[in-house]
Amino acid sequence: MAKKVTMQKIADHLGVSKFVVSKSLSGKGGVNETTRERVIQAASQLGYFTQKNAYVQGIKRGSPPAASDRNKQSVLVLMPNIRFQTQDSLYWGKIVDGIALALDQEGLGMVIVSEQRADNFINILNPSGILGLVGVGQISTSLLLEVHRIGLPMVLIDHEDPLIPSDTVFANNVDSMSRLCNHLMAAGHKQLHFIGNIRYSRSFRDRWAGFRSALEENALRTPDGDDEMLLLEGMDDRSFREPFRLWMNKQKKAKAAPTALVCANDSVALTVSEILLEEGYVIPGDISVTGFDNIEDASRNQPPLTTVHVPKEAMGWAAVEKLLNRIHNPAAPLEKILISADIVHRDSVEGPADSGQ
Q1: Read out DSSP for 168-208?
Q2: Strand pairing category for 288-290 and 192-195
Q3: Are 269 and 201 within 8 A, CB to CB?
Q4: Backbone dihedral region of 293: left (phi > 0), alpha (psi from -120 to 50 degrees) or beta?
Q5: CB 212: neighbour CB atoms within 10 A?
Q6: In the prediction, which pLDDT does 7 show?
Q7: Cys staple from 85: which of 81, 162, 200, 259, with CB 3.0 to 4.6 Å?
Q8: pLDDT (0 to 100) of residue 21
Q9: What burial class does residue 264 get, using C-beta atoms within 10 Å of its C-beta: 0-12 exposed, 13-18 middle, 19+ buried?
Q10: Is the pLDDT at 283 greater than 90, yes or no?
């Protein structure tokens, strides 16, 4: 039987005092951020967070509510990236709609919190009135650490933390992107290029993995890992416009322009399409463009965008179901739920202009 991972074991592993470990894991001051991150990482690697009842404060929340008093309980929805992950977002808003519908069916309330600072977050949280947490999008390790510390059950949507274990819900990004690329190759495309920062999110990395595997399976060359189009900055505010424009013009002069651009999401694809039209390209006559997510603007674009439909409301609904199951079965193995996503064929794709490429 494996020995329990204690704070002392973590301290010995790092060569620091147990006091430093305790301070770091409790979220209290007195420890610099670098040391705190080292402690959290070591705790995760040693399996501290995956132990039953590890690192949980003695907060009395009572047993799961009966149907008669469920209206007195709420689920916390954490959306800390308030600039871009909001209820008004064409992507994130639909996920929140799915969460709200599922909670309403269960007679549960929803409290949306956009706090980004871990110390402020714990001050506003009243765990005795919260059943659990659904995290939406990118959330810092420090915030998730606070949730884990108080023993609040949680499910993350479109995000997973490398250190803090939890149930997660994603679209099946790898397989869906692979099918999309196979569709492009079946149309005759052999020069495909991925556009988007693969370090931006887990979903972007998975979509890149699906792109790369599809090309490798068809013996086509994939972009190098240091390709500038794989590391584009400015995904949220579209500040990648000029770097992409310069790159595309450079490819054109070198007669190495791709025949199809496979974008990490619809927002990137719509921006890319706008720039291509400004530069005199015809879509899809000169170049095909695809997106991912199927936000509402994708169908309104000219030409309408071929994309992958992510069932956003279903992801929110699945997260609520998983959270309620987790509350009733706290010792069950953690799960990563993948929701199937389908290609939506529209007018931004056709065969390459020169089928001999």
Answers
A1: EEEE-HHHHHHHHHHHHHHTT---EEEES-TTS-HHHHHHH
A2: unpaired
A3: no
A4: left
A5: 20
A6: 81
A7: 81
A8: 79
A9: buried
A10: yes
Tokens of 169: 């819900």
Query: Which of the four pLDDT bands, split at 50, 70 and 90, describes residue 321?
Result: very high
Hey, what domains does the chain have and what are their CATH numbers?
7-37 (no CATH), 70-171+313-340 (3.40.50.2300), 173-309 (3.40.50.2300)
pLDDT in tens, 78-100: 886 544 544 456 788 889 899 99
Can you tell me the distance from the alpha carbon of 11 to that of 39, in angstroms, rounded to the nearest whole number? 8
What's the confidence (pLDDT) of residue 287? 97
Per DSSP (E only), the strands in the chain are 74-78, 109-113, 130-136, 154-157, 167-171, 192-195, 260-263, 288-290, 307-309, 336-339, 342-344
Tokens of 37: 């991150």
| pLDDT for 190 | 95
Structure tokens at 50: 């995956």
- Taking the C-alpha atoms of residue 192 and residue 254, their distance in angstroms, rounded to an integer, is 16
End-to-end CA distance of the chain: 60
Read off the pLDDT band of 235 (50, 70, 90): confident
Q: How far apart are CA 121 and CA 222, in angstroms?
A: 43
Distance CA 166, CA 119 (A): 21
